[in-house]
Amino acid sequence: MLPQEISARLKFLDDCAHLLAATAPATSRYIMSTHHALMFETNIEPTELQMMRACGACGTIMILGWGATLEPGRKAKGKQRVEAAEPLKTMVYNCGICSRKTRISTGIPKPPGRHGKSISKSISNLKSSSTLTIPQATTIGKSNKKRSRSKNKGGLAAILARNQASQVPSSGYGLDLIDFMKKG
């Protein structure tokens, strides 16, 4: 077969399997298995998207929560774990029909780990240095609060005074909202 014919047939099989996934899941699995077999025969590697969309073993269309589940990758314990320069996070897709697990790397490096000893040292350093600065910070904070309150009150009073001075007495009884706000 020509490469154009193969790509057209693969696209047709993929589209058919996805269209039949909800109404005829067994037929959909068979068509997707045929799709995977054709890819294997022609030595075409499946992309990550294709691996995420369908199970490579049974052909089930992986719809999260319906025919598949998703979980973040876990570190291997003991001797199996291989330390890389920048380990990547992986997502594990579990097929609900055949229980096959498909691991796909997300390309996002894991955050760098810290050692417990260095964290405890930095916490003890922070505690010793912060005990001296705490009383000074609270007194400065109180004076800042008082200053901001007085500034806000002065600012609001000034705005009201300007508005009252700029207003021309209107017709009516001569009462305004400011008259009701005054005490006494």
Structural features:
184 residues; mainly alpha; 5 helices; 2 domains; 12% strand; 3-stranded antiparallel beta sheet
The proportion of residues forming helix, as a percent range, comes to 40-55%
Number of domains: 2
Strand order of the biggest β-sheet: 1-2-3
Structural class: mainly alpha
N- and C-termini, Cα separation? 98 Å
User: Main β-sheet: number of strands, strand sense, barrel status?
Assistant: 3 strands, antiparallel
Fold and architecture overview:
The protein is mainly α and 184 residues long. It has two domains: 96 residues, no CATH class; 37 residues. 52% of the residues lie in helices and 12% in strands. It contains five helices and three strands; from the N terminus they run αααβββαα. Helix 1 runs antiparallel to helix 2. The radius of gyration is 35 Å and the shape is elongated. The N and C termini lie far apart (98 Å).
Summarize the structure.
The chain is mainly alpha-helical.
